[in-house]
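Reproducibility note. Readers wishing to regenerate the assembly model reported in the main text can use the exact inputs given here. Chain order matters: entities are listed in the order in which they were concatenated for prediction.
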Amino acid sequence: MDQFKFKIISKDKKTSARVSEFSTPHGKLHLPTFMPVGTRATVKTLNPEELVDLNADIILANTYHLYLRPGSETVKKMGGLHKWMNWKRPILTDSGGFQVFSLALEKRPMQNTDKKLVKIKEDGVEFRSYIDGSKHFFTPEKVMQIQSDLGADIIMAFDECAPGESTHAYAKQAMDRTHEWAERCKKEHNKLQKSKKIKQALFPIVQGGIHDDLRVESTKFMAKLDLPGIAIGGLSVGETKEQMYHTLDVIKDYLPEDKPRYLMGVGTPEDLLEGVSRGIDMFDCVMATRNARHGSFWTKDGKFNLKNCGFKEIADPLMKNCGCYTCKNYSTSYVRHLYMENETFGLRLVTIHNLHFLLDLMSKVRTHIKNGDFTDFKDKFLKRYFKKS
Amino acid sequence: MDQFKFKIISKDKKTSARVSEFSTPHGKLHLPTFMPVGTRATVKTLNPEELVDLNADIILANTYHLYLRPGSETVKKMGGLHKWMNWKRPILTDSGGFQVFSLALEKRPMQNTDKKLVKIKEDGVEFRSYIDGSKHFFTPEKVMQIQSDLGADIIMAFDECAPGESTHAYAKQAMDRTHEWAERCKKEHNKLQKSKKIKQALFPIVQGGIHDDLRVESTKFMAKLDLPGIAIGGLSVGETKEQMYHTLDVIKDYLPEDKPRYLMGVGTPEDLLEGVSRGIDMFDCVMATRNARHGSFWTKDGKFNLKNCGFKEIADPLMKNCGCYTCKNYSTSYVRHLYMENETFGLRLVTIHNLHFLLDLMSKVRTHIKNGDFTDFKDKFLKRYFKKS
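Running the prediction on these inputs yields the following structure tokens for the assembly.
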């Protein structure tokens, strides 16, 4: 695993925040960072050049969606994800676990699983496609094989993500299964790696719901697997923000110091800052891109929506002094017009702005950790962001 | 009108095709050319940089749509179309006439107008908004004022576009009205021009349906107005291709030689070639961009559709040796995947390819006219294009 080198550049004195680098076959990650989500092998509305302009070090793709359509064999035949989508920088694929469970979530009682949509067995999970209802079976081994076909730089172990409100008993059951699956993933991954020219880093996923004892147990277990990174799953799935921050505080001291730590599915500006201060290095979330498609955009003064008719004749950009392509070239008036007319270029412009907002925030976070004034920066940012103007 | 200089560079010996240049305040048009349509001040899915990459000399915007939303006063307040949409090259706005009539077309008997949706009076046309049913009134004068507010380089006279199957009597009535309106447009336009810093070229629109005598009469009438260009409307609106080509043959000798000639709403590869050989210099059509959104793309071997499952694992681009961004960077497999998943980036990729196909065709047309082998080129292109492989 020599090529997945992790190097700490700078540590904050007041918090657990740190600046680091993680090397992958397709380039270096500058951490902490935010990873734009490209569910179906495309970050919605953007092309790779625009993502490079945004300084995105790495993007995500979803195993579950690509397995169902067009199929991981197709992506493999076409030369793997990087070649297929013309993206030369690192890619991370998730394990599909979250989707397998969450796309059946509404039908699932909190304590058990719906027999029709998702059937959990010790060997793996049987689920029905959200597209056509066809039956599929994921095992840890199969998920490793699929992710091997897709060819991302970082791949995730198969896990069961229990909802935020899960009882201790159910959260423990899901955690125990996740632990067993992680071991099986590691074994299968090691086997697959032998024949691989380009190596992949496997990250296990800590689970345990909002139960401190389970979270500590799970963190210790996953740390022991000694894989090149570690992820924290099962947060931002229904629990409160306080519960999420508390859980991060609880596990902080059990996370390996010398490996990148990835908090899955988290992506508001405030959660990034709180996560970084609790030692998190990587984040991903569809919010930046999904909100954009709903007309919602971030500024230093909070969140706004283009539907507001007050924006109709605003000649200023979405955010003053913003360095993104959108704000450098277009008025709020024009972006609003495109959005109101359902023009896809409008969605692209807001997506660019929102992703720039998060990626630029993380770039500033790295600078301020290095400068030793991260806490000041964070406090000032949050004060202005939450102050209603 | 000195700034709207028209210069013929080269004439074909066998046909009426010619290569020419037309100067506007925002740059020179290299004719013959195709003009991408940006109905709502955006060429669907593309940004201005992509249009520049495609070598688009000029784009269209629609007066009718922009008048209704966001309103021409808003565009004027925001600095005019060029500034608002960040497009530095020439723009042409249509008069709104086509939309006023065509958006009520289905409800309108061929011989008369539906009282409820559109009411034609000598003074102008009363119509209801396609958005909210609100009542509006367009006169030739008002249409000039709106287009003055929008600020395009080339603007169009207000016309009544009679459907392709119109009787002689109805086509004559619509033509006579169009003639009177053209004179009123010219008068109002001259008045508005006096206070303008940046000049606009007004083009009148020849009408007359598929009736040779009316078309000749209309062409003579519009030529006499001595405006900087001339447009042919009312074609490609329900008549056959043969009728359209015939009409162009009939009016050919009455079109002013020393002015750009614009065939409105026409845009298949074969129609561009047939139009050019009949002396047409400018074309526009939504087909290239609309087809793209339906998965349809052009190649030298004809028209294809991405829905075809045979494209699923094709590693080749949409068209071999194509110089467009899409074909240089993406496999048909990936473009199809994006299209099937309804990803807007897929629509962008097909739009780029289709527009490149037409713009590149026109660039080749210019070269071959200059080289003296335009007819050869045209024949070979059409033979291959229509040969079913």
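We highlight two features of this model. Residues 292-369 of chain B form one domain. The longest strand of chain B covers residues 18-24.
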